[in-house]
TrEMBL record:
Gene3D superfamilies: FAD/NAD(P)-binding domain. This is Oxidoreductase. Residues 2-340 form the FAD-binding domain. The lineage of its organism: Bacteria, Pseudomonadati, Pseudomonadota, Gammaproteobacteria, Acidiferrobacterales. GO terms for molecular function: FAD binding; oxidoreductase activity. Keywords: Oxidoreductase. InterPro entries: FAD-bd, FAD/NAD-bd_sf, PheA/TfdB_FAD_monoxygenase. It comes from the Bacteria. PANTHER family: 3-(3-HYDROXY-PHENYL)PROPIONATE/3-HYDROXYCINNAMIC ACID HYDROXYLASE (PTHR43476), FAD-DEPENDENT MONOOXYGENASE (PTHR43476:SF5).
Length: 429
């Protein structure tokens, strides 16, 4: 089989890229190893900017029709004493809430839109098993699925196969894996009576913390930190060891957990690490999303960075295809555009990692003081959230102000022929 762009991995990064390329009339093939997307513990928290992107992609209505949970506020507390509250609803933008939507629903909605385009195809249940090379350049992939093997020749291979990327390994590109000091145990419980399912919480006690994220339909996705690589030992001690862990942070929430989490099968381990790569590409191959830059789950950024990669990359690839300019210069340009945002997120996350896991009473005092100061300094809160939650919408507002445009320019999606499309000879009017 031959295609212009072959994408390995149909997670948020790969599926959004495939859809955007399909809309730009690019011939694209998406390979996804899983037959079904039913996986309950994945990134489900979509930042306000990503909600705007769903409108651009034309899938917002499908997601809203399915049902989602909107989070308007985040609180950090210690022994139930509020240290920091951040209100998303204060922001001067159109989309000002974090949307929780099950990842399978998001991915199926994207695939349904991809299926509208004859120039795009999705191979489900097909796992990439190797990279094809010609004259030292990646020229396609080999894959296996449904008991058969095959090869796809392409002008570019995009590795979007997630945090344990096989394409990254096969590319031999150098990378650094930086394990954090903690792992996280994830589980789901109903929102307790009297609690709001529109507020996310981080509850602190010493070096332990409990993260509670409002989750569709009326649940909290909860994460509790444990020391790195201690999961097997915890499990051997029996489920009571887990209950004691949660009780130690908040006894009242602990008794709620006892009622709703029956055994270890309800609990999922997330190994926390980051991946840093000096270069995301080699000739004929580019990595995006978690494959290029795995971040920690703090502040719910992974899905959002992955989707932003694809929104940025699609027009660049379409343009370069028209101009026969696909290659390392383009890939380096893409990385240079995305790297500052990713580095900023990683920097904020590393700082939070240190604060949340503070061991000594001095470090915990510093943490308390930090959060209390941030609680009062609204302009600092705004500076951070403008960068990690509202960057896109802020840029659109700025564009509107400069052009006296009454609506948000990018929300027009592709109803008007874009510059890239004009260059490629596509006319949608
Ligand atoms: C437990 C957990 C909780 C998380 N919580 C959040 C959160 O609240 N908010 C947030 O923003 N992020 C969160 N994340 C991170 C988020 O899920 C990822 O950052 C995001 O999904 C990355 O998207 P991606 O498309 O790059 O990779 P992935 O979502 O990992 O998608 C990769 C895809 O590639 C496929 N694949 C793998 N190997 C192959 C192969 N050889 N051939 C073909 N296909 C292959 C996989 O099946 C998968 O569908 C969480 C992650 C986990 C594990």
């Amino acid at each position: 089989m031959k295609t212009d762009i072959c994408i390995v991995g149909g997670g948020p990064a790969g599926a959004v890229l495939a859809l955007q390329l399909a809309r730009l009339d690019v011939d694209v093939t998406l390979l996804e190893s899983a037959q079904s997307y039913e996986r309950s513990f994945r990134g489900e928290s979509m930042q306000p900017d990503t909600v705007g992107i769903f409108h651009e992609l034309g899938i917002a209505e499908t997601l809203l029709a399915h049902g989602c949970v909107e989070t308007y506020r985040m609180e950090i507390s210690e022994r139930r004493r509020l240290l920091l509250a951040i209100d998303y609803s204060d922001a001067p933008y159109r989309h000002k809430f974090v949307m929780d939507i099950p990842q399978p629903v998001l991915l199926e909605a994207l695939q349904a839109r991809i299926a509208d385009h004859a120039n795009a195809r999705v191979l489900r249940g097909a796992a990439c098993t190797g990279l094809l090379e010609r004259d030292g350049r990646v020229s396609g992939v080999s894959y296996r699925g449904h008991g058969k093997s095959g090869e796809i020749e392409s002008r570019v291979v995009i590795g979007a196969d997630g945090r344990y990327s096989r394409v990254r390994e096969m590319s031999k590109l150098p990378y650094t894996k930086l394990p954090m000091n903690r792992d996280v145990l994830w589980f789901k419980v109903p929102v307790p009576e009297g609690w709001s399912n529109h507020t996310a919480h981080i509850m602190l006690k010493g070096a332990r913390h409990l993260i509670l994220l409002p989750t569709y339909p009326d649940l909290f996705r909860a994460g509790v930190n444990i020391a790195k690589n201690s999961f097997a030992g915890q499990k051997r001690q029996g489920i009571d060891a887990f209950y004691t862990l949660v009780d130690g942070i908040d006894p009242e929430f602990g008794s709620h957990v006892r009622r709703h989490v029956a055994n270890w099968r309800d609990i999922h381990l997330l190994d926390i690490f980051t991946i840093n790569m000096p270069s995301w590409s080699r000739d004929g191959l580019l990595l995006i999303g978690d494959a290029a830059h795995t971040v920690t789950p703090l502040l719910g950024q992974g899905v959002n960075l992955a989707i932003q990669d694809s929104m940025e990359l699609a027009p660049m690839l379409a343009n370069a295809l028209c101009q026969d300019r696909l290659g390392s210069v383009l890939f380096a340009e893409f990385q240079a555009k995305r790297q500052p945002d990713i580095e900023f997120v990683m920097k904020v996350q590393m700082r939070q990692e240190r604060l949340l896991c503070a061991e000594s009473s001095w470090a915990q005092f510093v943490r308390r003081t930090n959060y209390a100061a941030l609680h009062r300094l609204r302009f600092v809160q705004k500076r951070i959230s403008d960068r990690i939650a509202y960057k896109r919408q802020r840029a659109m507002l700025h564009f509107d102000e400069c052009t006296n445009n009454s609506g948000m320019a990018l929300e027009c999606g592709f109803t008007q022929t874009s510059t890239v499309e004009k260059q490629c000879g596509v006319n949608r009017s």
